[in-house]
Amino acid sequence: MFTFHNTFDSVNCIEFSDDNTLAAIGTAESYIRVWSLDNRALTSPQDPPGFQASSSRRLIGHSGPVYALSFSPSAAIPAPPTNGHTDHPTSPDSHPRYMLSCSADTTIRLWSLDTWTNLVVYRSHNSPVWDVRFCPHGHYFASASADRTARLWSTPQIAPLRIFAGHDSDVETVAWHPNGAYVFTGAGVGDKTIRMWSIAQGTQARIFTGHAGNITAIACAPNGHVVASADDKGVIILWDLRTGRLVKRMRGHGAGGIWSLDWSVESTVLVSGGADNSVRVWDVQPSKETHPKVNGENGGVAKIDGATADGGAAAGKVAKAKGREQSTADMISDFKTKKSPVYKVRFTQMNLVVAGGAYLP
Fold this sequence. Notes:
By secondary structure, this protein is mainly β. It has one domain (15-77, 90-357): YVTN repeat-like/Quinoprotein amine dehydrogenase (Methylamine Dehydrogenase, Chain H, 7 Propeller).
């Protein structure tokens, strides 16, 4: 467990780098703070002589609250040659070199983690940007905004490559398919759908409906076959991308909703964290009930209605006890904090779970 100091302001988001060396927060006071998880000094070649570097850096540039952060993927680098041989396997991942941030000031910023400076400001959205996410392969990234659009960008260009329009309300969250060919978006009040967009064509591949609350988190399994979506009612729905079927509903989180989802390396376990001060682990094996298949034809959009497709499956039913809802049988474990809403959960490559939250005294 890590405790990060040097911040006394309200935390909006938390992010961890892929190699587990850095953690960052975005604040309502418009700045970002980055910490080294191995307590190394975060230095910059631009530091003046005599500068005493510490294990954290403060990044200033936004003029409004920072709502989301995304580290660039770590890049594998060749290991040093040993015993005179050069055909040595690659070393563990290198440190990420960049980080994206988005804000209420309608901009997205690209930061260098070598110099700890702002490199690019991306301007195109005309409303607060709620989420931003690097492509699994780097270079490209996607953003979600209150202007009801999501946008595709490449880091060297200041204008978006594509605009994904179709949601009827704020686009709250965005996620990538592991192959980088599709983007998933989720919307809030007045829409409450998840949409799957083709990067190559710039069109909707599918629309998933069935959530009763605002979509707050989306995560696609590493195997690329299942996508999980969560809402502010505490419900998680799994969707099978190969067949177009709703796999099942899972419930257990309390009031305030689910803020983060992530999959194990083998795509067999899902972890979630949220406003109810808990981290929960879920069994993602499909329930025995069958659901109707809904597919797009000739490249058309397949609208998958979870309310209809679920058919009142047992996995979606929630028992009532003493006026509160109980968890479905899919929940494997429940880890509670004292007073810390969980902003971010993430599986490591060794299938350990890293979770981050802000203590609220």
